[in-house]
Amino acid sequence: MKLSLSKKITIQKTKINDNDVIYVIDNFLSEPEDIVSFACKTAYFNPPGKDGTLYPGIRDLMPRPYEACLQELLNELFESETYIHRCMLSLITIPDEELNEFQSLPHVDSLEDCQYASVHYLCDSQYGGTSIYKHIPSGDIKITPKNVQLMQDALNNNKQRGYLTNNNDLFESVFSVEAKFNRIVIYPSNLLHCADINKAKSISADPKRGRLTVASFFEI
To answer: Which of 41, 39, 45 is nearest to 66 (CA)?
Structure first.
């Protein structure tokens, strides 16, 4: 697989609070269709949970050329050195009614400010983007070692089971990014976030019919 950054790349920065910025980059790669082809013909998707996360679907590691392109993009965005942990080709496959209590809430991938995540959409807006949430009782949008207890409180008080598609008594969306083919969104891993799932479209193991994305995790 040969991949390269697009020369038509555009970068939008949004400050979500006093310290944190969300990056929305359009036209990320010159050859995004090659990833869809890889997903259809070559990728070996592992069962849900095999990657050690609560992601409600199947995943496979991306080849090195993808990681190299992401690294090139990160070098342009951040002055500090970055270290990529992994890049995971992802498809949501678990039905709404089979989600557990943890998967029914916004989540964080880390408690540390130095950890970041990205979602590269290889699907369009009808499959759902990504939203950042505020925990209404506390007003917090970020989880750190100082307030991690609120996640347990949310689990204890959550009355909803299934994909979070609207605000509820505990969480309110404060920022949303629409899915767009070849768009990548980058955000701090400890911001409360959740995929915006279209229950009629997003859940499929077919790369051409489901919410195909690449989820990546890196450290600054």
So the answer is: 39
Amino acid 160: pLDDT: 86
User: Tokens 């955000």 identify what position?
Assistant: 187
Question: Could you give the CA distance from residue 163 to residue 98 in angstroms, rounded to a whole number?
Answer: 10
Beta strands in 62-192 (DSSP E): 83-92, 115-121, 130-135, 171-177, 183-188
End-to-end CA distance of the chain: 27
Q: Tokens 């709404």 identify what position? A: 96
Q: Are 176 and 169 in contact (CB under 8 A)?
A: no
How many helices (H) and strands (E) in the chain?
3, 10
**Residue 7 has what DSSP assignment?**
T
Overall pTM surpassing 0.90 (yes/no):
yes
Q: Which residue has the tokens 């307030």?
A: 147
What's the token pair of residue 137? 């009782």
190-215 pLDDT, tens digit per residue, is: 999 999 999 999 999 999 999 999 99
**24 and 183 Cβ atoms separated by less than 8 Å:** yes
Q: What does residue 142 show for φ and ψ, rounded to 5 degrees?
A: -125, 140
Cα angle 125-166-49, degrees, rounded to a multiple of 5: 75
